[in-house]
Design goal:
The chain contains 21 helices and 37 strands. By secondary structure, the protein is α+β, with helices and mostly antiparallel strands. It folds into 5 domains: 77 residues, no CATH class; 109 residues, Alpha-Beta Complex (Cathepsin B, Chain A); 215 residues, Roll (Ubiquitin-like (UB roll)); 102 residues, Phosphatidylinositol 3-kinase Catalytic Subunit, Chain A, domain 1 (Ubiquitin-like (UB roll)), CATH 3.10.20.90; 117 residues, Ubiquitin-like (UB roll), CATH 3.10.20. A hairpin with a 2-residue loop joins strand 35 and strand 36. The longest helix is centred in the N-terminal third of the chain and has 16 residues. InterPro entries: Papain-like_cys_pep_sf, Peptidase_C19, Peptidase_C19_UCH, USP, USP7_ICP0-binding_dom, USP_C, USP_CS. This is ubiquitinyl hydrolase 1. It catalyses: Thiol-dependent hydrolysis of ester, thioester, amide, peptide and isopeptide bonds formed by the C-terminal Gly of ubiquitin (a 76-residue protein attached to proteins as an intracellular targeting signal).
């Protein structure tokens, strides 16, 4: 494993399975703590809800993992290792039905000779040409139970040897052309244990990882008292051939670890010895504001070097701080004491203020009249404020950084207008208007500054930004698109685009298209862009659904179009899920326009014919003000009735039980629990009949329940005959159905004024489930990477 090469792309993406295995094995061997498997499952691309929380089969994972590793080994020095370790060969012959026992094929089970002799008694089996160095034996713990009509787990005791000799009895398992010089004596190396049932349970493993007799148990479950009895059984055995053990179970030392993995481990171990320092200065602000960024000051990712050539006596460094409104501003200069501290001590101070693991500093340099640095003031008082200034040109629609000033908080903007004009290159008497840039996310905020108020009264402090422009005339307010600072910054804020990945709701794991959208686009705008990409003429046939960031899947309900129209939902609002922002939206193409569809209600109704034990699903779409009677009238046109005057009932099933019977006058959008039983008369009972099967102490309902009218004095035998006739069950099959004996049925089912729901008494029919089994999650194809 350690001989498989890793690249920088593997380290960066985290998607390499062999790298994840290298890391896990390294930590298991050289670490002192337990090792998690999160990074390994991430390399499987199992970070989605579907794969992370569903039961999977360990044998299937073992097979798929070996196939994936075999692919990753191609073109490397370890190519072919999988085949060398696990691959053997065998030859089929007609002798016995399984690998160790012999079964005679006779009577109806005779072997058919393709020649002229027809059916003949025969024996079939398998002989092995060679065995692999590592033998993986999968014990057949599951079998089909014809009584329950389902797969069941076999919990019988099975003893397996510590040593397995496959050469015994003169090599009876070997084919005549097998190499008899190879000694096929195997020693037990690992046991995979399963506890639980067929479709649910827990795995653990016992492994002897070295040549010693010491075994290790790998288990991520803690013992808890109580609950049902758990049956733990050996599920898979791993044997290694004695003659190959020294090579297979070789001791791994540091020199066997891949250089890239060792380098990565060293970096992680020594990370605390280093600190990344990023220093921004005036030149960075001049280069970036108005070009790369408009809000705040600087993109710290683009700050590469701080070799400035400025003598120490002219330097002053400021710490940055992340404010409550999510802006990032210079907060205060380093104190004299802090300037003598180590970089690590400064980083700890910086983390408290900026909540960033790196050490971020702002480099302040004062420039004198002759454009040479001058020493900054020896000490900054509490009354001193560092302000930054941006200039806006309404005609050019541009904003850029022009400089900074230190002022007294008791001073007024009116007193520094000449200095501001000087920074902008204006005449000293130019009239200007001042604004404070307060924040930009999630909502933009910019406020006018009153020149005659003190900086303290205007709540201005260190790191605040003042945007200014020439005083606009009344004519220019209509001449320019964005005549003042707030309108321009709002425009820029909304212009910032987000890249949204659109996925079809039917294929929710695959990106179909990626669109660059403005933050102010409405639902209609977004659906129009998607429709244009898909080649649809009517964008109202596009329905959008938000992404659930927690479950990594579509939300269960689509965006409600009527609410969108009333509130003019913006595209970015649809990307927010519980304060977490996503870049995924799901779309579906509708048959009818969305405004029309949302005035309708779509119901999926299963129709069960009175004489057929099969339910057919129908999708019916009606106006929301329709009643249950309307629904049943539409359904009558879609199904085959036993007779023209047959009446239909609308039932709600829950866990294969009848939960509700809906009255005909109930609106389909406001269905409540109904009253029932009044129309039957005093001599009749309306009972529920369910299908069930026992699994140990459990009672599992299945199939489609139904309702049955019984009359006073009717016996169980009479009811059973009616049920058999209704379900059209043959006599031979119905004889296997189990019902408790009772003379008079109506005594068991009291007549009630109100419908009693799924928790009331019901008649149960115990028999095997012959309906098609649903696909369990574990039966889905397992994929890695």
């Amino acid at each position: 494993m350690y001989h498989m090469p890793t690249t920088e792309n593997d380290l960066a993406s985290g998607g390499s399975i062999h790298l994840a295995l290298q890391t896990m094995f390294y930590k298991l061997q050289f670490g002192k703590n337990s090792v998690g498997t999160t990074e390994l499952t991430k390399s499987f691309r199992w970070n989605t809800h579907e794969y992370s929380f569903m039961q999977r089969d360990a044998q299937e994972l073992n097979r798929v993992l070996c196939e994936k590793l075999e692919d990753e080994m191609k073109g490397t020095v370890v190519e072919g290792t999988t085949q060398q370790l696990f691959e053997g060969h065998y030859r089929n012959y007609i002798e016995c039905i399984n690998y160790v026992e012999v079964e005679r094929l006779e009577g109806d089970n005779k072997y058919h000779d393709d020649q002229q002799h027809g059916l003949q008694d025969a024996m079939k089996g398998v002989l092995f040409i060679d065995f692999p160095p590592v033998l993986q034996l999968q014990l057949n713990r599951y079998e089909y139970d014809f009584t329950r009509d389902t797969m069941v787990k076999i919990n019988d005791r099975y003893e397996f040897p510590l040593q397995l000799d496959l050469d015994r009895e003169d090599g009876k398992y070997l084919s005549p052309d097998a190499d008899r010089s190879v000694r096929n004596l195997y020693t037990l190396h690992g046991v995979l244990v399963h506890s639980g049932r067929v479709h649910a349970g827990h795995y653990c493993a016992f492994i002897r990882s070295t040549l010693s007799e010491q075994w290790f148990k790998f288990d991520d479950e803690r013992e808890q008292y109580g609950g049902e009895t758990k049956y733990s059984n050996a599920y898979m055995l791993v044997y290694t051939r004695e003659s190959d053990r020294d090579e297979i179970i070789a001791n791994v030392d540091e020199k066997d670890i891949e250089e890239a993995e060792e380098h990565k481990k060293k970096e992680e171990a020594e990370a605390h010895l280093y600190t990344v320092i990023k220093v921004a200065q005036n030149e960075d602000l001049l280069k970036q504001i108005g070009r790369d960024i408009y809000f705040d000051f600087v993109d710290r990712k683009k700050v590469r070097s701080f070799l400035f050539g400025v003598p120490v006596k002219f330097q002053r460094f400021w710490l940055w701080a992340k404010r409550l409104n999510h802006t990032y501003r210079p907060n205060r200069p380093l104190t004299l004491q802090e300037e003598t501290q180590s970089v690590e001590q400064l980083r700890k101070v910086s983390i408290k203020a900026s909540r960033n693991t790196e050490l971020d500093l702002f480099f302040e340099v004062e420039i004198g009249p002759e454009l040479h640095p001058i020493p900054p003031p020896c000490y900054k008082t509490k009354e001193d404020i560092l302000l930054f200034f941006k200039l806006y040109d309404a005609e050019k629609e541009e904003i850029w950084y022009v400089g900074k000033l230190i002022v007294k908080d008791s001073g007024k903007p009116l007193e520094i207008l000449k200095k501001i004009n000087e920074m902008a290159g204006f005449s000293p008497d130019e009239e200007i208007k001042l604004y404070e840039e307060i924040k930009f996310e999630p909502a933009f905020m910019c406020m006018h500054i009153e020149k005659k108020l003190t900086f303290l009264a205007s709540e201005l402090g260190d790191g605040d930004i003042i945007c200014f422009q020439k005083l606009a005339s009344a004519d220019s307010m209509t001449l320019y698109r964005y005549p003042d600072v707030p309108s321009f910054l709002k425009y820029v804020h909304n212009l910032q685009a987000v890249h949204v990945h659109f996925r079809s709701l039917e294929k929710s794991m695959e990106d179909d298209l990626c669109l660059k959208l403005s933050k102010v686009l409405t639902y209609d705008d977004v659906s129009e862009r998607v429709a244009r990409y898909l080649g649809l003429d009517d964008p109202t046939k596009i329905r959008l659904t938000c992404h659930d960031c927690s479950l990594q899947q579509p939300k269960p309900q689509a965006i409600i179009f009527l609410i969108v129209q009333q509130n003019r939902l913006k595209s970015t609002q649809a990307l927010i899920h519980y304060n977490r922002t996503s870049d995924i939206l799901y779309y579906e193409v509708l048959v009818i326009p969305l405004p029309e569809l949302q005035n309708l209600k779509t119901l999926k109704v299963g129709f069960c014919h009175s004489t057929k034990n099969k339910t057919v699903l129908h999708s019916i779409r009606l106006p929301k003000q329709s009643i249950v009677g309307d629904l049943l009238n539409v359904l009558k046109t879609k199904v085959e009735l036993s007779h023209p005057d047959a009446e239909l009932r609308l039932l709600n099933f829950f866990c294969h039980k009848i939960d509700r019977i809906f009255p005909l006058n109930e609106k389909i959008m406001h269905i409540k629990y109904p009253r029932g039983g009044e129309e039957l008369g005093p001599r009749y009972r309306l009972i529920h009949v369910y299908h069930f099967i026992k699994d140990g102490y459990r009672v599992n309902n299945f199939g489609e329940p139904f309702i049955l009218v019984i009359h006073e004095g009717e016996t169980l035998d009479a009811v059973k005959l009616r049920i058999q006739k209704k379900l059209q069950v043959p006599d031979e099959e119905f004889a296997k159905w189990i019902t408790e004996d009772s003379d008079i049925m109506s005594r068991c089912f009291e007549k009630r004024d109100h419908y009693f729901g799924a928790r009331g008494k019901y008649l149960g029919l115990e028999h095997s489930n012959s309906s098609p089994k649903r696909a369990f999650a574990a039966s889905k194809t397992l994929e890695l990477g």
